[in-house]
Amino acid sequence: MGSEARQRPVWDRLVRLTHWGVAGLVLFNSFNESGEIHRLAGYVAVALVVLRLAHGLLAGGGSTAALPLPGAGAIRAHLADLLRGRGHAGAGHNPLGQWMAYLLWTLIIALGVTGWMARLDAFWGDDWLIDLHQGLANVLLGCVAVHLAGVVVMSRLQHENLVRAMLTGRKRG
User: Fold this and answer.
1) Four-point Cα dihedral 88, 94, 97, 101, nearest 10
2) pLDDT, greater one: 59 or 169
3) Minimal CA–CA distance to 92: which of 5, 162, 6?
4) Which of 8, 10, 69, 125 has the most C-beta neighbours closer than 10 Å?
5) How far apart are CA 170 and CA 108, in angstroms?
6) Predicted structure pTM score
7) What span, in angstroms and rounded, lies between the C-alpha atoms of 111 and 15?
8) For 94-112, how does the pLDDT look when each residue is reduced to its tens digit (9 = 90+)?
9) pLDDT band at residue 87 under the 50/70/90 scheme
10) Count of CB atoms within 10 A of residue 25's CB?
11) What's the mean per-residue pLDDT of the chain?
């Protein structure tokens, strides 16, 4: 038996497709900041987030696609484990990772809404909405950087390539 036999499923295909689809669209839109293609890519990113949220709400409680909302106790326990040099033993997101996912999804939806609103006659020529949209985009990119740093740190602590797990849908058993 190879190493494949010792791996367990962690992320289903829809979770991985929505993750990488949104990641690619956010990256694309961070370099292409205006026009119809930017708008279309933003709307597709919002649609993928909504699809992911619906999938998570319909997933069973034991599924890694489920959307638990970790409380303060779970976050404290996770931070204590990190200070002891221990990674996350669970299959899905750790508590901080789950909160980061919610934050990223919220920002993407807010970007879609502010982008859409900026096209409405009621807001035509109002700079505050464009400024808000740009500010949200900057916050999103900062959160993406924190997310990527978290993936690197947790990969090292757990001795597990989390990027590979998000590509293959499997982690070590």
Assistant:
1) 140
2) 169
3) 162
4) 10
5) 27
6) 0.87
7) 21
8) 889 899 999 999 999 999 9
9) confident
10) 22
11) 89
Interior/surface letters 44-63, b for 16+ CB within 10 angstroms, e for the rest: bbbebbeebbebbeebeeeb
Kindly state the helix (H) or strand (E) to which residue 7 belongs, with its residue range: strand 7-9
Q: Residue 54: what residue type?
A: A
**Residue holding tokens 């221990």?**
86
DSSP calls for 43-89: HHHHHHHHHHHHHHHHS-TTSTTS-----HHHHHHHHHHHHTT----
Q: How far apart are CA 2 and CA 170, in angstroms?
A: 14
* HSE-up of residue 68 (Cα within 13 Å, Cβ side): 18
The length of the chain, given as a count of residues? 173
Angstrom distance (rounded) from CA 92 to CA 89 = 9
Contacts of 69 (CB under 8 A, 6+ apart): 98, 102
Task: List the structure tokens of 131.
Answer: 């400024």
**Confidence class of residue 126 from pLDDT cuts 50, 70 and 90?**
confident
Q: What are phi and psi of 86, to 5 degrees?
A: -100, 140
